[in-house]
Every structure is written in structure tokens, then in C-alpha cells.
Amino acid sequence: MAAVSAAREILRRLHEVMAAKSGAEAKLNQVVQIVATELSSEVASIYLLRDGMLELYATRGLAQAAVHVTRLSMGQGLVGVIAQSREPLNLAEAKAHPDFAYRPETGEDDYHSFAGVPIVRRESAIGVLGVQHREPRDYDEVEIEALQTVAMVLSELIHGAGLVDDSQAAQARAASSEPMRLPGLKLVDGLGRGLAVFHQPRVIIEHTVADDTEAERQRVYSAFGRMREQIDAMMGQAEFVGGGDHHDVLDTYKMFAYDEGWSRRINEAIDTGLTAEAAIERVQARNRVRMRSIDDPYLRERLTDLDDLSNRLLRIVSGQLGTAAQLGLRDDTILIARNLGPAELLEYDKRYLKGVVLEEGSLTAHVIIVARAMGVPVLGRVRGLFAEVSEGDELIVDAGNGALLVRPQAAMITSYKAMSVLKAKQAEKFAAVRDLPAISKDGRRVAIMMNAGLADDAQALELTGADGIGLFRTEFQFLVSATLPRRERQQALYRAVLDAADTRPVVFRTIDIGGDKAVPYLLDGSAQEENPAMGWRALRLALGRPALMKIQARALLEAGAGRTLNVMFPMVSEPWEFAEAKALVEAQRALLTRQGHALPAHVRYGAMIEVPALIETLDTLLPMTDFVSVGTNDLTQFLFAADRANPRLADRYDWMSPAILRVLRRIVVTAKAAGVPATICGEMGGRPLEALALMALGVDTLSITPAGVGPIKAMVRSAALEPLSAAMAEWLDSPGVDVRAALLAAARAQGVELG
Ligand code: PEP
Ligand code: MG
Fold first, then answer.
1. Residue 9 near residue 267 (C-beta atoms within 8 A)
2. Does residue 247 share a domain with residue 330?
3. How far are the Cα atoms of 399, 490, 534, 549 from residue 450, in angstroms, in the given order?
4. 353: CATH
């Protein structure tokens, strides 16, 4: 309690200083007086970062002649070490520290002990506050905490007076921090460079000293209440922010959210006179110091969770709830998040978004499909991301090599530039095959179509030379809208896509909402589903809300006037669902005909095969359809009972496993016998070896991510498919063959270009 009252006394006096009319320099002089008195120290000094150097700015106890004269660079002397590490130092014998730098002009010869803390703003050190004693002594925790509290107030004062340039401080921090390489999992290939921006920005604390302690207590109390509600709601859902099994994290969140110790420490900090924000930050800073000293990776991770939760609490209490997308991007950006939903990603300005790095993430989650469509490289499952990267750090995402380069050195940047040139050369090579057909060496013509969903995706048709759009995910328009897109808007989009495609076919898939593609304005009770991927989604939702489907059908029919319209239904589980959906569109067609509207010359209907049950009833389904398309993303998740959005299962099952290849073969053979064209439109077809396997199974049309069109075309043109088909048949009929290895060997023997 004595500690609390001492801290309170310091803050009370600081409050007076802050409120006074005097100039900034005079205020800093008063602060060193207060610190020295309250901590009974002979010396108290403030150093500020000016022109990249830490300059002695105010002192009690050191020679006044040294003020504005003594300057140390980042990392130089004890003060430089504190600023660089952004951690306190507590030394009984300052001179014994290897980084001690003697400055005769200060007259500090008589002092033995030293304690200092960084003054931080926006994660960068803008100065250092230090005390010195004649007698050699260790400072106790309460004294260090008192210094940290004063440092927070100083940060506000210094910023308010404009004594330090924030962006210079960020540069100094980045320049003096170690470069590092964090490994991760390639989710979308590519290379990008930019500055780190957190999807959920760190809260900037504007006021540290409270006017009314009771009011601050109330604010924290209600923020805790709201945070607990949020966590409970998250626990109630199987997924949160984009999906996956987050139960470990959520359990920890819940534990901390209800932890009495945490809220008590925050309240104690408020009792000393801090605002709610400053108190949370105060406790968080202490937690961060603890985090750095812990070796156990499990415990460290739990403390990272607490850090995350502190940020959440800060956002709630400060009302700074917006994402970085809402604040707007200004420079080339690498976006940092724990996880993201597809709609959240779509909010970002594509011009500045050069890469995404996730602490979680899995290959076939929709956010990854969206990123791929946007052409943004994504690296996932980067451990230690939040501990090692600060807002504004320079980053290079090298997804192809599974690496995030943090604060890269000049040599790394040079090699990044060389790699970019190489990639551009590769792209040129693909551009060379752009206008050539995908014909294999032994004369088989394959159609390489592309997947799309965003308005400007259609431009990629020209760039890639794709044979058409084999899957247009119409739900993307719904995901980017805050409200239900009206029929006119839907129709305008479809028409623009058809215009861009000109004579090339476009397959429009009716909305596939639900699962990890949550659209708030369309969800009724389904937000609470335990297994949304297997829940009220796609065609189920569309048939359950026929008004929605009718509007979309009309928009499609109107947009397709005078042309061939291809309509495809997602997540068909039983043939009757297809029949019902088709009848619904046909009814709209009849209505529009009666009303005298111009209509498509032909309407072709297709079903997506993504639910295993449908494969058993193909004999009933196929005669009703004009085409079918296999969605391997969903089909594999259901075949293997493995959530496609769960990072833990991301690479557990191989698309080249006999289970999948046999099922696909069965579909291809059955459809061929029925005379119904069958295509593949999941992510699987965008990978060269997997695409080769599909062609060996007899697939003639793929619809893939635009970036895959060039490489897959080059692959096809370098392969002789016939011998591979024969080999594939054999491998699939002999149990135990590692098809991936066997096909790779055969492809290499043929000299197939696998990228
Ligand atoms: C699929 O499931 O494979 C597919 C193409 O559809 P989506 O990825 O949009 O679910
Ligand atoms: Mg699907």
C-alpha cells in the first residue's frame, strides 16, 4: 500500500506539472525534481531522441553544463541500451556494465547505482528516464514501476510539446533493431515488400493522468464486462475471425479475461492516478518484460495471448475499434494479423497491399482464395510474429521460400530486388505462352480457365490468356458490401464480366454464403452454428431464402441477354436440390420472357460436386445437368473430415492421396460415360503436379487461380499425357503406391516443367 501511495503522490505532482502553463523544458525540469525527491535519488535525468541521438535534456544532480551537450547514439552507453532494447536496466554498479560509457562533462564519477526506463511512443523509444545513487544498491520493483509510470506521463508530455519526431523515432528503432528471418508456411506464393501494419492497430494512449479516478475505475469495469461478453460469444462459435480451431487460444483468453489478478493489478494502477488506458498499458508493459525472460515456449505463448487480450481491452476502453483498413493504407504495406476473414481482407486498398502475414491461416480457407485472387502473397503460421515485428517495421514477405524478413539489411533488399526481377522474367516466360493453346506434347487439348470473383478479375483473362472463367464466385460481391447488393448492382457486375470475357465462357456460381464466408446482413441464427462449413450455407441457404435466389437469377438472366449463360449451384448434396434450384431459375426465365425482356440465347445448368453424398447419386444427377464441376476444396474437407480453415490440419492430407484421386477418377469416368463435361475448380488444379495428376485422370478442363494459368499451361505444353494416364491407372489400382513420388519421378523423366 505504501508503494501505491508513493506512486499516487508522484502522479499527483505530475498532474500539477501537466496542468501548469509553463513551457515544455520547464516542465521536464520539474519532473526530474519530482522523481529525484520521491525516489530519494541524488540524480534524475531525462534524455530525448533528437536528430537520431539521445540528448541529455533535463537533469537534477548531473552538471547543468552537460544539458544539450551529452549525446549518445542508440545502443551506446546504458541510456542507448535502454532505448534500443526498450527495456529497463537496474544496476547496483553502473560502471561494471559492459556498455557503460563514461561522460566526464556530466560529473557522474561519484555515483554507483543506476536505474533507467525507456520513454516509449507507438512502440518506439523517444527517450530515457534514469536515476542514480551514490551508494551501490539494487532498485526494487516498486521503484522501477514508479519510473515506468513517470515515463508514460513523459511520453504524453513530450509528444504534446512536439519535442520528438515520431517518425524519426520509428526509423531509429528500426535501424537499431536486429534484422531477422521468421519462417512460415506459404499460403499464396509471391514476393512483397512494405511496412508492417497491424490489422488491429495498437491503441495510442493520449492521456495518462486521470482527473477522476472513480470514473476510470468504472470505465475499466465496463470494458472488462464487454470483453468477457465478446470472449464468451467467441467461445460459443466454433470459429472466430475466419475460422479454425482456436480453442486453445480462446481457453487462455477466457482464463485471463476472468483472472482476478489481472483486473486487480489494473485497478491498483488506476488507484495511483492513471487513466484506464494508461493503467492497462502499465500492467501490459510489466507483462511484456516478464514475457521476455521466460524460456518455456508454452508459457511464452500464453503471455502473448495475454498481450493480445490487453490490446483488445485497450481498444474497447479507448473506443479505438477500427481496423487498419478503416484508417486507410498510405504506403506499400505488409498486413499483420492473427487471422483474417475474407470480407476483412477485401476492405483493404489493393494498390498498397503488398503482402499478408498471419500467425495462423490455412491453404484453402476463403481468405486465402481471396488473397490469391487479389494477387497478394500470404505467409501463414509465423510464430512469434507479434513479439518480433513492430508497427512500421520494414518487411519482405518471401512466401515462395516460406520466410518473413524483418527489418532486412541492405544485402537482403538487394537480393529481394534480384528475386523480383527473376519473377518478372518468369512472368514474361508465361506471357510468351499466353496466346498459345494448352496442348500437350502428344496432342491433347486441355482448357485452362480461371477462377474469379472480384470486379477487376476479368482483366486477368487478357493477362493470363485463360480460356474463360470456369468459376465466378458471385458471393464476393456480397462479402465486400455492407448491405445486400441490389439486383441492379449484381446485374452490372455480371454484365461487365461477360463483356470482358467476350466470346470466352463464364460460369457464374450462385452465392455460396455461410461457412467461413459470413455476411452479417444475411445471417439469421446461422452465426451461432457449431459447424458452419456443414451448416446453413450455399444452396441450402439459397433454397431456404428463395427471394435472394430469385433476385440473383434475374440479375444473371438479364446480364446474359443474347449470350450463353452458365449457371452453377454450389454445395449440391442431393439431386433434388439441383432440380429445385434449376426450376427456380427457369421460373424467373419464364417470368422475364412474359414480361418481354431480352434473355440469354442458351442457359446451361451445372452442379458443383463438393459433397461426397452426391457422388453416390451421379446417375440421377447427371441427366439433369449440362455440366458439373468438382470443388476439391470442399470435397477434400468432407472426404477427410478435416476443416479446410483449421491451420492444424492445413497439410495433414495430400491431394495426391489415392482416396482423393480415386474419387475424382470415378467422377470423371461416370460423367464422361453420361456425356456430361466435368471440370475441376478447386485450388488443387492450380498446382503443377496436382494438375498433371488430374490430366492423367482424364480431366480436360481446369478452372484455377489466375496466377496459375501461365505455369499450368507451360506444364501441359511440356508433357506427354498418354503415358502418364496409363501409369496413373496402374498406380491407383495398386495399393500402397506413393502417387506423388511416382508422378514426380515420371514427370521429371519426361522433362515436364513443374515450375
Ligand atoms: C471448392 O470448394 O473447391 C470451391 C471451388 O469452392 P469454394 O472454394 O468457393 O468453396
Ligand atoms: Mg466450395
1. no
2. no
3. 22, 20, 26, 24
4. 3.50.30.10
Q: Which DSSP category does 95 fall into?
A: G
Best of 363, 473, 690 for a ligand 1 pocket test (most atoms within 8 Å of beta carbon): 473
Amino acid type, 78: L
Residue owning grid cell 446480364: 559
56 and 119 housed in the same domain: yes
pLDDT tens string 340-355: 888 788 889 889 999 9
Q: Is residue 300 domain-shared with residue 340, that is, in the same domain?
A: no
Which residue out of 159, 199, 246, 366 is catalytically annotated? 366
Q: Which long-range contacts (CB under 8 A, 24 or more apart) does 485-494 make?
A: 487/551, 487/554, 487/555, 488/555, 490/551, 490/552, 490/555, 490/556, 491/554, 491/555, 491/556, 491/558, 491/559, 492/559, 493/455, 494/555, 494/556, 494/559, 494/560
Q: What is the CATH number of the domain that holds 241?
A: 1.10.274.10
C-alpha cell at 650: 492445413
Cell numbers 486477368 correspond to: 460
507 C-alpha to ligand 1 centroid (Å): 13
**Residues belonging to the chain:** 755
User: Rounded CA gap, 629 and 606, in Å?
Assistant: 7
Q: Judge if 311 and 350 occupy the same domain.
A: no
Specify if 208 maps to a domain.
no
- Tell me the C-alpha distance between 638 and 653, whole Å: 12
Mutate to test the pocket of ligand 1, among 363, 369, 639 (most ligand atoms within 8 A of CB): 369
- Ligand 2 centroid to 610 CA: how many Å? 6
Interatomic CA distance for residues 741 and 656, integer angstroms: 10
| Domain-ending residue, one of 366, 394, 422 | 422
Q: Specify the CATH number for the domain of residue 523.
A: 3.20.20.60
Beta strands at 124-133 and 43-50: parallel, antiparallel or unpaired: antiparallel
Position 524 scores a pLDDT of 57
Known catalytic residue at 97 = no
Residue 90 sits in which domain range?
Answer: 3-174
Whether residues 163 and 282 fall in one domain: no
Residues 671 and 573 both lie in one domain: yes
Q: How many structural domains is the chain composed of?
A: 4
- Residue 412 CA: distances (Å) to CA of 261, 288, 390, 590: 45, 29, 19, 63
DSSP state letters, 564-612:
EEEEEESS--SHHHHHHHHHHHHHHHHHHHHTT----SEEEEEEEE-SH
Q: What is the pLDDT of residue 239?
A: 43
Same domain, 107 and 232: no
Residue 116's pLDDT is what?
A: 96
Of the candidates 117, 283, 293, the residue with the CA atom closest to the CA atom of residue 205: 283
Strands 378-380 and 394-398: unpaired
Ligand 1 atom nearest the C-alpha of 364 is: 8
| pLDDT at res. 365 | 78
Fill in the DSSP letter of residue 210. -
Low-confidence ranges of the chain (pLDDT < 70): 1-4, 236-249, 297, 300-301, 516, 520, 523-528
Asked if 170 and 189 sit in the same domain, the reply is no
User: Residue 70's domain is classified under what CATH number?
Assistant: 3.30.450.40
CA proximity to 11, closest of 258, 270, 238: 270
